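tool_call: predict_structure(chain=1)
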Amino acid sequence: MTVRKISRRTMLRGVGTALALPLLEAMPISLTPAVSAAAAAGKKSPLRTAFLYVPNGVNMADWMPTAEGTKFELPAILKPLEAFRSKINILTGLTLDKARANGDGPGDHARAMSAFLTGRQPRKTHGADIRVGQSADQHIATRLSEETQFSSLELGVERGQQAGNCDSGYSCAYSSNLSWRAESTPNAKETDPRQVFERLFGTGTAQERASSRAKRDRTNQSILDFVREDVSTLKRELGAGDQRKLDEYFSAVRELENRIERMRKEVTTRPTIKPTMAAPTTMPTDAKDHIRIMIDLMVLAFQTDLTRVITLPFANDGSNRPYPQIGVREGHHDLSHHGKDESKKQKLKQINTFHTEQLAYMLSKLSSVQENGKSLLDQSLIVYGSGIGAGDRHNHDDLPVLLMGGAGGQVIGGRHLVFPKETPLMNLYMTMFDYMGTPAKVFGDSTGKLKL
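tool_result:
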C-alpha cells in the first residue's frame, strides 16, 4: 500500500466540529523558524511548555531535599513523583522579589500569583487601573502564534473574579490570573471542562457549534461520530503504525467525552432546594476529578498540537478551599498559617501531597504519549511551583519550584539544583525562552540565565 503524506494541519471535519490529529509518521516536518533549530539537531517534534501553579506556598520541611545533586531522597511531599525522578529537577534558591511588599504593605497572595510569571510589581489597586506585565507564557505564545491554532490555552480549577478587592487593596484580578497578555490585560482562565473541549474541537458559527453539541447530547453521540466519514477515508491512506496511533487517540477523546458527560449529569441531576434556582453548572465538584480532567485536556491539546503553551493553576492564591476528599475539612489558606501547630502542619502536608499526586498523574499521561520515538514529556518543559515559599511566613525566597521534561534533549533531570540566594525566578524563564526558540534580552527582574 502506498502511504500518502498528509499535512500537519489536517483536521477531521463535521458540522460544527473540527478534530485535530496527533503527530503521525505520514506528516512531514516543516522547518518553521520556531522549530528550525530543534529540527536541525535531529529533533522532529515541536516543544511544548506549561506553567502549573499552587497557592499558599508549601510546608518547606517536607519539600526541600537535604542533599544537592543527584544523590538525594525525595521528601514527603514529593514522594508521589518517585517514578518520574529522572524527568524532574528540584530548583532551590529562586526568589520572586516583586511579590514582596517593596513599600506597598500587605497583599502577598495577590502579588505572588500576579508576579509569578511576570517578575513585575503589580500596581496596588482594586480599581480598573490594574497593571503588572506580560507573563512568560505569553512571551513564548506570541512568538509561536503562527505555529498552532491557539497561541495559548489558559486552564483553571477554581473560578476567580476580574474586579473587586480580594487581598488588602489588590484587585481580585491579581490573585485569580496567572497569565497576562499585556500589563493591564489578564488572560482569564477557563474552568469548565466542557467549554474547553468545545473550544478545542468545535468549529463553524456559534449556531453550528451549538447545534452540534445539542445533537450529541440528544442522541448520546460522540464528536467522533460527526467525523466518521473523514476518519474512514484517512485510515485507508495510513500505515499500520499510524492507524494504531489514531485508534489510541480516538479512544482517549471518547473516554474524555464520557467523563465530562458523567460530571455534567451528576451535577444536573442533583435535587434543587427551590424550583426557582438557577440551572446548575457543569463544573466538577471534586478537586481531584477537576484537576485531572483539566490535565487530560492539556495533554490532548499538546498531543494534537493545537497549542504549545498552557497555564494551569490548581487554585487561586489565597484560596481557602477545603479538601474533604482527603479528610481535610479546614481551609487551605487557614492551614497555611499553622503557627507551628503540628496538627495543622500535617493537614497542610496532606494538601501539598495531594497536589503533587495530581502532578504525578500529569507526568504519567505525558509519558504515555509517544511522538517520533520519544514521549510527550521528553518534548515538553513544565514548571510547577508557588510564588510563596512557606505560607506561615509569607516569604518569597527559596520558592518551591520544579522543572520537568526534557525539552527535546536539552535538559537533564534527576537533580536538586541549589542556586545562590536571591537568584530571580525570572532567570529560569530566560533559560526556558532559549530552549523554546524564543530568546529575550531581559524579562521582568531577570539578571541573567540559569545554568541547567
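agent: Confidence is low (pLDDT under 50) at residues 30-43, 267-281. Proceeding to next step.
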